[in-house]
Amino acid sequence: MAGEAKAQSKLDQIVRVIAADMVAEVCSIYVQRAGEVLELFATEGLNPEAVHRTRLRVGEGLVGEIAAHAQPLALSDAQTHPAFVYRPETGEDPYQSLMGVPILRQGRIVGVLVVQNRTRRNYTEEEIEAMETVAMVLAELVVGGGLIGADETAPADGNAILPVRMDGVQVNGGVALGTAVIHHLDVAIRQFVAEDPEAELARLDAAVGEVHQNLDRLFGSRELAQQGEHRDVLEAYRMVAADAGWLNRIRDAIRSGLTAEAGVQQVRETTRLRMGQISEPYLRERLADLEDLAVRVLLQLTSGQNGATALDLPEQTVVVCRVMGPAELLDYDAHKLRALVMEEGSVTAHVSIVARALDIPVIAQVKDVLTRIQNGDTVIVDGDNAQIFVRPSEDALQSFQETLLARNARREAFAQVRDQPATTRDGVSVSLNINAGLEIDVPQLHATGADGIGLFRTEIPFMVRAAYPDVAAQTALYRTILDQAEGKPVVFRTLDVGGDKTLPYFASETGENPALGWRAVRITLDRPAMLRQQVRALVRAASGRALAVMFPMIAEVAEFERARRILDMELAREKAAGGKLPRQLRIGAMVEVPSLLWQLPALLERADFISVGSNDLIQFLFAADRGDPRLSDRFDSLSPVVLAVLRDLVHAANRAEVPISLCGEMAGRPLEAMALVGLGYRALSMTASNVGPVKDMVCALRLRPLADYLGTLLNAPDHSLRDKLRAFARDHHIPV
Ligand code: PEP
Ligand code: MG
Q1: Whose CA is nearest to atom 6 of ligand 1?
Q2: Does 488 share its domain with 583?
Q3: Residue 734 pLDDT > 80, yes or no?
Q4: Cβ contacts of 189 within 8 Å, gap of 6 or more
């Protein structure tokens, strides 16, 4: 491999060596060319005429099968396999058994390496592993050896130079314009095999030691606050970095004759492959951390460098990656980092949490972004709408810049009215609150001038942890939230897990209809210890301060009563133990399951407040999955049906003199919020960035005409009242 020969003649040589070594009659190398075609590039044993002539599409034949699944295949009777196709020019009919492995580079298929035998052979695990090691070495030659043009290896979708707009999932809001920096630090490995394993092991240890020291420096960086979930995440990463299993696998690879860097690379490739197959979010996170770590060790080994710190970054950098570990993001100079775009990742990915702490826009799950964006492309990242514009046209760029200016101006304006109450022109005040779920969300409470936290989703801190937090950990967390709220009210919602919100360490079967399944209070009533511990932590965290707790997914009053009894038990216990009880305790229910609507009088007699979870309520009213994009435009939150239900709710609460608020997404959209205020809602809770726009709307509103107008609309058989309400807002100069 290290010799001077041309890449093609190296391939020819390699197939001969492997065939002899594996006692196989055939060894062939297929290289993936543009258009997902696998071309026979070298063979020992098949007809030499077939070289550069035999081509298979990915997914076609056994070779295509290996490429399509990125998985090794070992068959003692290959010809009876359903995917087998016969290519007469190869002359492969006498060969019964086949074993092949994908040639992978940076998680992508670049070719397939195959051996075939005349007899029916069962290939051993060791043989498959040996082939995988060879394939790893081959990958460098296939990509870097000039076998095919660089344009063929660079993934492209044909119109790579045209502007494109791509959608993803919002992780953090905000907008940014910058230059794409594709994050994969390409580490070129020159030496694969080593004579002296002991020396290689010593190199590995030295590099790992150096990486650990660098991590300590990085995690102490000034840009990050010293507290918050991102600290937990970085601690978890530190544990991964010390993972003995991972290091041992690398050591084993080195003992088999590889250099330290080739050992790391081999373990890294297997990790990547596993990553592709695992959907469980917690494990994926761990594997992503390992990938991050592997790159660090590789860089250290090959160049003594340390992450992206060494890169010469554009002044406005938009980092684009498949997914990355939290430490990798910190490598980028925070003063130049403007946004993060990921092909995978999610809201709870470790890197997302760190990115939120840095307060940059982040979009995840942008399909195929790595194949459609190139280094140096101009990118607009619109985190608020979870979309990016790659290589925007001059017009688009200009209009974006105008949007940005207008946005900044509006932001300024919102900051100016931060401390003013949200009061309509006819003097009715509306309490605007924020929804939060992480410690890093809480400063928004003060930044936006909101009245309180109307919904603290306690499940989110549970979701980003590696293990179930005990009472002490929960107490510490809730105490910090209350401390940071500085006396503004916080409504803690008890755990709403299940459905789509899974806890990595809590085995829950999803069932056929997760949203209708075992979730939220249904779980915590069946596992009362969970609820007791959480309530205990909340009571202790409040310690003499006011406390508000609400239960999610209450379907009938009896459930509310059961949950409340558990809370009472904890209060009694705390009292007996001499603890300080909350100065004031308010216990509420979320109204988000329609059945509860028919028990409202009984509920309102017992609850201190209610909060409408319109996200779930609407999904259950229409029997329409809230997460299904095919249904997202099907039913409207401004339909007369929804508004009539919400009106009846607010009337019932007002009659019973029980405070009511609404904390679903519609509260944060100015037009919807206008309708809610018109129906009688005087408290709303929303994503922090919406407080300014909603306050703007409220302050421009005159209530009487709106309430009268709404009264005429609610019995209409319309699909939606959106257009009519928008026209009303326009006529009355209400910014929505
Ligand atoms: C809701 O259902 O409207 C709500 C606020 O709760 P979540 O979105 O967390 O289910
Ligand atoms: Mg809900």
Answers
A1: 613
A2: yes
A3: yes
A4: 140, 259, 261, 262, 265, 298, 302
Query: Could you list the residue range(s) of the whole structural domain that residue 546 is in?
Result: 427-731
Q: Which of 97, 124, 153 is the last residue of a domain?
A: 153
Q: Does residue 400 sit within a domain?
A: no
Arithmetic mean of pLDDT over the chain: 88
The residue nearest atom 8 of ligand 1, judged by CA position, is 615
Q: Is the pLDDT of residue 617 over 60?
A: yes
pTM of the model: 0.65
Asked if residue 170 has pLDDT above 60, the reply is yes
Residues 147 and 171 in one domain: no
- Å from CA of 684 to ligand 1 middle: 13
In a domain, 310, yes or no: yes
Tally Cβ neighbours within 10 Å of residue 51: 20
Nearest residue to 227 (alpha-carbon basis) of 477, 457, 448, 465: 477
CA gap 392, 162 in Å, rounded: 9
pLDDT above 90 (res 47): yes
For residues 707 and 651, give the distance between their C-alpha atoms in angstroms, rounded to a whole number. Answer: 13
Span from the CA of 380 to the centroid of ligand 1 (angstroms) = 30
pLDDT tens, position by position, 127-151: 998 898 889 888 888 887 778 776 6
Q: Which ligand is nearest to the CA of 500?
A: 1
Q: What is the pLDDT at residue 589?
A: 98
Domain end (from 108, 123, 153): 153
**Residue 459 CA, ligand 1 centroid: distance in Å:** 12
